[in-house]
Amino acid sequence: MIKKIGILARPCTEGIEPIMKDVIEWARRNGIELFFDLEAAKNLGAEGLRREILPEKSDLIIAFGGDGTILSIAPECAIAKKPIMGVNLGTLGFLAEFGKDETIESLEKIIRGEALISKRTMLEINYKDQSFLSLNEVTVSKAFSTRLIELTVYIDETLLASIRGDGLIFSTATGSTAYSLSAGGPILEPSLECIVMTPICPHTLSVRPIVLPPTAQIKLECNEAEDEIYITIDGKFRANFSKDTFLYIKKSNHYLLLVRSFKKGFYELLRDKLRWSGKLIG
Fold it and tell me: Which of 67, 129, 227, 244 is catalytic?
């Protein structure tokens, strides 16, 4: 039963106040306690909490913004096993499925126990003494140099390849419609439990994306001494990848519980977001 809801908002979002006030009034009528992150609280003149502690205090998280807003709190939601509902205030997005105009109607269905939950695979990334969770992808790429970098990939301790190019992307099925797609990776239905390795501008054209099983244990070795190489997780810089060190990637035991739209499924989202419904001209 949902009695406490945590609300977070993308910074500097115009026009968010009306829908936030509608949610506050709806919560008051239904006896639901609300918690706000610091950004949402700033828009309302209310007291706020640090974003990362919202999931442990809430039964449901509502993210007002876009996919990036959901990504910013996905690890904490997954660890706390709390569902998250994304209200899209941006443009292209596959995670924030709800429009502003359907927020209250959808919340009514959710508190009646009618929520549609999509269980999303996450990645666990370990580097030196640091550990991270990722909903979309981990990217290993060159920083500012125009030189190629070389990365050696092992799968289950078996050498796969030493790949020269601009870097590598390791994504979940959820992340297959993000950076991996831009780099030529395949689109995967988000319920699939797998890991996609997508090369970024490989020097050898025979190096292609590969879909790995959920049991795959990935080890990545840096072969470069001179250039800066970045480890980026869900769009955030996390560490410099040093020569002769190893990055480990595997499927996490944690899953994100994403509340799905009541109006559109994944294939309808694909058609709309990627504009596959238009007619060819010519």
Answer: 67
